[in-house]
Every structure is written in structure tokens, then in C-alpha cells.
């Protein structure tokens, strides 16, 4: 093969078609925005106007009139609404102030009734102690102290809980009724002998519940900060700090997202008030029926109030 032939062959190899690589198209949003500033709908509307010609003068005039009338109607509606809001503002403020006064008066009346109930209960205790013998009196005092019906003093622990700064938008930063329930249950399990929440003594029949956005202990409304005071053995604080409940709320207090307050302090000479005696139910002996078998009671508890 000649050199020329070789050169022609090499030329042919150089000019062999190479497989075409697929093109990749990418959209440059910024370039498209400057290239096509108007939405496609406006372009289509302009093209339709050019195709069908401008609107008749009568149609344009009607549209202007309709637009003006609509704007006037909307303006009148906004003006009327504004005037109504301004006129009703003093009435709403007066009604709100009246409701606040009514709530404060009822709260003061409720507090007065609670103080009277405590005073009457103390008087009943005094008369009963005067009528009982010394041996029965000691046993009665121990039972009443254990049941929460008598004021007690002693060393113990105070657990303070309060809402975090983000409580309005973060539910986990807010102290709920279930949080107080968990803490009091952990204190009972740690050996507490008497517990009170913000001065409200807990008994076996005292609920801790939510009433809307408020927390109610028994019949009393309590607000943040919440102080859970407990009287018990000397190692109660250590035992409580080792519980899972204390670990969870300590983590909430350390978390910057919640920053719920949670403090555990040992206190000397705590004084917990007595709880108001609840309404009691008394059992009665059922009267035998003529057949000799006792008649069933119609009361759910088997007795009367």
C-alpha cells in the first residue's frame, strides 16, 4: 500500500462519524424572567385583542362604570365596618371591665367561704378533742395527719416548676396538669408522707386537673410558678432525683428550646395546711326483707349521703 493510500485511510478514520452526545437543556429562571417579563396569559390576551380588534367604546365605558361602582361599594362597606368597630369598642371595654370585677368578687367570695370552712373545721376538731379521751385523741391525730385533714410540720422537699419563656408557642415549655400529677406521684413513691401544691393539701380525693387553660387542685385555681412541697424521710430528695420523672423535667429545663423551670430544694420546718374535709358518704345497715334475705340498695355506693 502506498503512502498516499495510507494517508487516505487515515483521513477516512479521522472523518468517521462519532456518536452524537444527547444535548442537555437547562432552564435559566433569571434569564427567562428578563426575556419574558409578562405571564403567558397576558400575551395570549393581547394577541386575542389584536386578532379581534379593540373593544367597542360602549363596552369600555360600561366596564369603567362597573369598576367605579364596585370600588365605591367596597369603600362604603369598609367605612361602615370601621364605624361599627369604633362605636362598639367602648361597650366591649365596659363589658370586659364588668366581667373582670364579677370574677374578682366571686373569687373573693370563694376565698372567704374557704377561710370560713377552715375555721369551722378547726372548731369541730377542737370540740371533738375536748370530748375524746387522751388515748383515742392521739390515734385520731395520726389518722387525720395521714389523711391530710390536719396541719403537719417537718423537713422535706420543695419542687418548683414554672412555664418556660416560649410557653405561648411551645406546649412542651408549659407546665400542664399532667406534669404536676407526675411529680406528685414520684414524690409519693419516694416516701412523701404529706404533699401540698401552692398551699393546697393533697388527700386521696384531691384531683389535679385542667380547667381550660388553668390548673385546678381540688377546688382551687393555681398559677405558675408551682411549688410542690412534700414532707418525708431525710433521703426523699435523693430518691426523687433518681426517678425518671426528675430526669425528664431536668432535661426540659436544660433544653434551650423549652427552658422550663425545675428546681428541687431541701427545706427544714415545712408547714403544710390541712385540707378542707370533703363531703362524706355514710354506710347504712340494710333492713332484711320479709323473706329473710337483705334487700338490695338503690344507691350506687350502697348507702346514703
From TrEMBL:
Pfam families: DUF881. The chain crosses the membrane at residues 65-85. This is UPF0749 protein. The keyword Transport does not apply. It comes from Catellatospora bangladeshensis. Residues 1-25, 281-305 are annotated as: Disordered. InterPro entries: DUF881 (IPR010273). Residues 294-305 have a biased composition (Low complexity). Residues 1-16 have a biased composition (Basic and acidic residues). GO terms for cellular component: plasma membrane. Belongs to the UPF0749 family. Keywords: Membrane, Transmembrane, Transmembrane helix. The keyword Metal-binding does not apply.
Amino acid at each position: 500500500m502506498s503512502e498516499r493510500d495510507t494517508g487516505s485511510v487515515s483521513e477516512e478514520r479521522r472523518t468517521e462519524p462519532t456518536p452524537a452526545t444527547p444535548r442537555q437543556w437547562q432552564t435559566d429562571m433569571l434569564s427567562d424572567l428578563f426575556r419574558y417579563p409578562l405571564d403567558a396569559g397576558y400575551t395570549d390576551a393581547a394577541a386575542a385583542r389584536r386578532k379581534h380588534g379593540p373593544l367597542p367604546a360602549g363596552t369600555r365605558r360600561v366596564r369603567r362604570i362597573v369598576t367605579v361602582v364596585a370600588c365605591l361599594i367596597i369603600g362604603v362597606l369598609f367605612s361602615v365596618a370601621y364605624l361599627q368597630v369604633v362605636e362598639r369598642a367602648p361597650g366591649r371595654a365596659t363589658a370586659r371591665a364588668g366581667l373582670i370585677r364579677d370574677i374578682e368578687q366571686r373569687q373573693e367570695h370563694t376565698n372567704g367561704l374557704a377561710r370560713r370552712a377552715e375555721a369551722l373545721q378547726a372548731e369541730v376538731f377542737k370540740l371533738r378533742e375536748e370530748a375524746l379521751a387522751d388515748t383515742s385523741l392521739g390515734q385520731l391525730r395520726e389518722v387525720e395527719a395521714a389523711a391530710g385533714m390536719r396541719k403537719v410540720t417537718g423537713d422535706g422537699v420543695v419542687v418548683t416548676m414554672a412555664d418556660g419563656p416560649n410557653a405561648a408557642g411551645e406546649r412542651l415549655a408549659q407546665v400542664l396538669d399532667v406534669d404536676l400529677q407526675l411529680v406528685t406521684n414520684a414524690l409519693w413513691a419516694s416516701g412523701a408522707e404529706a404533699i401540698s401544691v401552692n398551699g393546697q393539701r393533697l388527700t386521696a380525693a384531691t384531683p389535679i386537673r385542667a380547667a381550660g387553660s388553668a390548673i385546678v387542685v381540688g377546688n382551687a385555681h393555681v398559677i405558675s410558678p408551682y411549688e410542690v412541697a412534700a414532707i418525708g424521710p431525710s433521703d426523699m430528695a435523693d430518691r426523687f432525683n433518681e426517678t425518671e420523672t426528675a430526669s425528664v423535667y431536668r432535661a426540659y429545663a436544660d433544653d434551650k428550646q423549652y427552658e422550663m423551670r425545675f428546681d428541687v430544694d431541701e427545706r427544714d420546718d415545712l408547714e403544710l395546711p390541712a385540707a378542707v374535709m370533703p363531703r362524706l358518704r355514710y354506710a347504712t345497715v340494710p333492713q332484711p326483707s320479709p323473706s329473710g334475705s337483705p334487700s338490695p340498695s338503690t344507691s350506687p355506693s350502697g348507702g346514703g349521703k
